[in-house]
Every structure is written in structure tokens, then in C-alpha cells.
Amino acid sequence: MLTISQLAAYAGVTVRAVRHYHKIGLLPEAERDRSGYRSYDAAAVVRLIRVHTLADAGVPLARVQELLDAGPDEFEAGVQEIDKSLRAEIRRLQDSRRRLARLAAGDHLALPEPVVGYLDRLRSNGVSERYIEMERDAWIMIAAQVPDLIDAVIAAKHEQFDDPDARKLYSLVSQAVDQQGDEALLVEIADVLERLYIRAAQAGELGDEPFDEGLVKLLDAVMLESAPEAARLLAILEERGWKGWTRIEQVPAARLRSLE
User: Fold this and answer.
1) Buried b (16+ CB within 10 A) or exposed e, 213-230
2) C-alpha–C-alpha distance, residues 260 and 255, integer Å
3) Model confidence over 5-54: pLDDT tens digits?
4) What are the backbone angles phi and psi of residue 159, rounded to the nearest 5°?
5) Whether pTM exceeds 0.70
6) How many whole angstroms from its chain centre is CA 131?
7) Domains of the chain, CATH where assigned
């Protein structure tokens, strides 16, 4: 007859594990001998080894009893089912690892690859990190709300960035977010924006952003909250006849007033 410590040693487990198996009903508790100690027989050793082998192989403890009591065919089917579940869990964990590896790069947090590539292009052209952080927040919302539009929108942004005025605009805006309160710089930004707006209006592309009104307002709010100088820039543009930021509208009456 064996003590609980000897039983555990034969099966290659800890005494704590044996007590846990007792508690959840996988291993019957032995009767106490005349000295008050529990004593185990060979059958208990075999049972414990089988429990430990199944558990060590990845079988959930909740299903160990089921497999111990199963016939050969049921046992094989049960093992195959558990293996299928484990393979699915492995794929989930591998996917989690890939996501974590991408998150380590920073911009990959909640952003699809085309957006990350666009932000990298901005960096390579000297756009300040503070401005990129502002734009990244906007792209996170766009990617969450209209993921199916990302490829088309990013393709349009790359095309726009080929325009020298667009590259100049990013350079000036980068300076503005890093040097707040420079009125002359804001006026220069308004000049570049107005040229871009006029060309867009002539091409019939003004206000053709594929976003609903709610998303437009949210994107405008992000810009205004992130950059205090943005409100002054919008005011300058409105005096010239242009309203909005994400979706631009031409206001003829305001334009006429600015020319008086």
C-alpha cells in the first residue's frame, strides 16, 4: 500500500495534483488505514498515470473522465475531436503572434497595410511625426468605419501626393503643428489649399469624398481637437469662400465678400 506521496512519485505528478484530481472526481480518494493515513493500491497508480497521460497530452480535464470510460472507437473519436480543437487554438495563437509582431511597428495598430505604406511615404518626405500621429488617428476611424473603401481612398491620396502643391502643403502643415501661432504660415497654407481646391472644383472632384456625414464630422472634430491652429486656418479659408476640411464646399457669397 502506498502513501499519497509515494502514489504521486510513481505517477510523476505532485501531491497537489493528486489532491486536485481527488477534488474534481478524476481519482477516487483512498480509505484511511488504522493510523489515519490514506493508503493507495496499484489500481490507483494505474488510474493516476492514465489521468496524467491524458492531461499532459492536452486533453482538457473536463473531458478526461469521458475518455477514461470510453470504448476504443469512442476514445479515438474523442481524441480526434480534441486534436481538431487544439489545431484551431494553435492557429488562433499563431494569428495572435502575427498581430503582436505587427503591433510592435506602431502604425500597424488598427491600421491596414495600405495606410501604413502611405504614412511611411509621408515620413520619407519629411512630414513631422506629430502631424502623422494626427493623420493616423483619422485613418484608424476610416479603416474601422469603411474598410472596403481604404484601397481606393489610399490610391487617390498617393495620386494627390504626386502634386508638388500637395507635397508643399504637407511640409507647411508639419511646420504649423510644430510652430503654433504663426499667422503668416497659416496664410501660406491657405494659399496652397486654395490652389488645390480650385483645381479640384475645375475637375469636378470637389466634395466627392466617399464618407457619410457622420464620419465627415468626426474626422473634422479629430483635426480640430488635435491642432488648435486648425480653427484659425478654417476661418481664413471660409473668408475666401471655402468651407469644411474633410469635405470641402465652395461658398460663393463668402468668396465675394473676401474680394470686396
Assistant:
1) eebbebbbebbeebbebb
2) 9
3) 999 999 899 999 999 999 999 998 888 877 777 889 999 999 999 999 99
4) -65, -40
5) no
6) 21
7) 4-102 (1.10.1660.10), 113-259 (no CATH)
